Amino acid sequence: MRSLNWLLFPTLLLILISLYCIFIYAPTESSMGEVQRIFYFHVPSAWTGFLGIFLVFFCSILFLIKNDRAWDIRAAAAAEVGAIFTTMVLISGPLWAKPIWGIYWTWDAKLTSLFVLWLIYLGYLLLRRLLESPIQRARLSAVFGIIGAIDVPIVYMSNRWWRTQHPQPVMGGGESSGLEPSMLFTFLLSLTAFTFLFFLLWRMRCRIEESADRLEALHRELNTRLQEGK
Amino acid sequence: MNFLFAAYTAIWIVLSWYLFSLSRRQKRVENELTRMEAKIKESLK
Amino acid sequence: MKFLNQAGAILWKDLLNEYRTRDALTSMLLFGLLVILTFHFAFEPDSLETQKFAPGLLWTTFIFAGLLGLNRAFASERENEALQGLLLAPVNWGAIFLGKMLANLLFMLLAETAILGCFAIFFNLSLGAKIGWLLLIVPLGTLGFASVGTILAAISMNTRMSDVMLPLLLLPVALPAAIGSVEATAAAFSDPPGAALAFWLKFLVVFDVIFITVPLLLFDFVLEE
Question: Which chain C residue's Cα is nearest to A126?
Fold first, then answer.
């Protein structure tokens, strides 16, 4: 019925291969044991979370410049998918930290900015939900999207500098520095798989909005025809 | 390790839920679309 | 020059409005007093603990009092549909932003001064030597907060849950300003102030520059119908 998204097959393939690598190919880490494997989807989720807000920023600016609904759709979809991935980071993070470092959470720069990122996503999505006029919804969320996205790196930096004053336990710092080649490969593969997955979900989400718009247009057309018929 | 299993499961639940909700929404919209198109064809007769 | 004149006119209008009703200032000040009271009974801090937590508590109070003030910033416009009238007038919309932002800034600074005074009294803080630094830190921190707060208040006033939306949108975005302000205040309180103070002051300046420029550029889009 509908054309299959060209991303679907490569994404599935990447996911399957990554799963194999994560659980079988990659060696068990010496100090942390099996739990360390969470790293292979925790960090890529964080990466896609940040990718999402960058796309929101980019698409929001384009929308404000061009006033084209297509960019509004892309921004909103990116926010939704980004929020999902950021949620996954916030879930996997504590589940990784507890067995290894004995604590669920630490207010280090990475985790705090991820938490703030999550809040910005939620604010954006809630804002969209509460605004009824489509034009207003698009415009106001674009403005907030831009402001929020600019804020994220600033939050990260301010936390980094804050920590030089208040040393806190570090979780998962410098993971990528001491990686064996096979682990590095698995990590990069997983990163690629997650990125493809992001774009796949993003595209799917955009398609739904586009179809909904078409539906809306058909509704209106039907109504005008019915009016004319009277 | 239990935590690994829990994290893995949690992530897959979240992802599957989202994928499922996406495809459900897509199907619903497309059904509406075909219905609409049929209605319009009717009104043209 | 005309731009500044327009901003000044809007600023003056808001000041007059507040002078006649005094809603915002009273509620902000009362709120500050209540926080002091609650903090005392919640933690019963001794003098050493008070010194340690004063900067954080001070700025937390400033932030929540500021939210009260910001919420009202556009509420009165909306009530009397005064905003429509404002938009129809041949005013540069950036000037509206500037005027409103300065009004919010002024109200917050007034409330903060009063709250700071109450803090010093109730917690026996000796501010004497530090006043100089505070005179620099407080406006810098409040400026960033007022600036982002004004544009986000303008955005959230369009939703039906505006008083919930504003904190939700503002607090994550203003977090760096809060961090900078608290750290700078804490550094100022310690003897000697040290390099941290200079650093965080510079940080606040950069934050303010970014978050006055960006909202100024985007404000037109918020007001468009």
Answer: C165
- As for how many domains chain A has, the answer is 1
> For residue C84, what pLDDT is reported?
72
Distance from CA of A136 to the nearest CA of C (A): 7
pLDDT in tens, A19-68: 777 777 777 776 767 777 778 888 899 999 999 999 999 999 999 999 99
Residue A88 inside a domain? The answer is yes
ipTM: 0.88
Please state the separation of Cα C34 from the chain's center in Å. 18
Contact A146 C148 (CB under 8 A): no
Which chains reach chain B with 3 or more Cβ–Cβ distances below 8 angstroms?
Answer: A
User: What single string gives the DSSP state of each residue in A72-92?
Assistant: HHHHHHHHHHHHHHHHHHHHH
Please give the interface size between A and C, counted as residue pairs whose CB atoms are below 8 Å apart. Answer: 81
Helices A134-165 and C131-156: crossing angle in degrees, nearest 10, is: 150
Give the confidence band of C27 by pLDDT, cuts at 50, 70, 90: confident
- B43 at interface of A, judged by CB pairs closer than 8 A: yes
- CB-nearest to A143 from C172, C183, C221 is C221
From the CB of residue C154, how many other CB atoms can be counted at a distance below 10 Å? 25
Domain containing residue A73? 7-27+36-169+178-229
pTM for this predicted structure: 0.89
Q: Are A57 and A145 in contact (CB under 8 A)?
A: yes
Chains touching chain A, criterion 3+ CB pairs below 8 Å = B, C
- In-domain check, residue A1: no
Q: What's the pLDDT at A42?
A: 87
Domain residues of chain C, as ranges? 2-223
